[in-house]
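Quick one: structure for this chain?
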Amino acid sequence: MQETFRSRRFRGFTLMETLLAIALVGTLLSIFLTVFVPARGMVQQALTRQEAERITGILRAEMSFLRADEQAPSSATSSSANSYLSPFDKAFFWLQSSAKPTSSIVIFSYRADMSKNPQADGTYPSVPAAKSVPGKNCQMMTLACPMDDKLHKNDIANAVGPVFIVRMTQLEPGKAGEFKPVKNPGVITNAASPDRYISKPDAEDAWGGVVFYRADFFLMSPPNPARYKGKTWKQLGRPLFSANLSFHR
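Got it. Here's what it folds into:
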């Protein structure tokens, strides 16, 4: 009688019980994948949108802000006399710099050496990653500037994280009130310089004091401006994301 009790106690699962267990686990796994995978995709999309909004905000803020002693490059002397008179002048020239990738705007983060004197535009010089001690002798900064800006050549080389190239194309109003991109990036229609790009208060084309444009963001890989010499926008392929923006007087 004791032997019978032991044999029942250590008896294994039947085939039916095993199949039921497998079916139950499969059902639970299906429910988990149905709920978890879409949720994970939504989180990734949200993070992507969040990053896109952050990068777009940096461009918008920089084009509406004029740093102390910020000088226009020599190629802008015809309209700015080597000095930006307002953020509008700066944004006007920055859009025109999108004619080719090598002169377009780049957005990046870098470790700024706060122990050094500020550079000509008020920003601090970068610290190479190998020499920096986070939180001790440097601070993370995010900057937007022309790719061919000699002042920030080393800052771009010492960038931390992704570097984005911005292509800006003006959006021109049509007869039906719609906006469409002009043929080539870096071209601003109906004006040759910022001081002429303004409408009279009673003019029908009151939009003349505002420039609407589409910003296309590309990943700069590798983050080396020299590698983009001679390249065209077509060679860069499709942008990571785009946004419709504007700047005004």
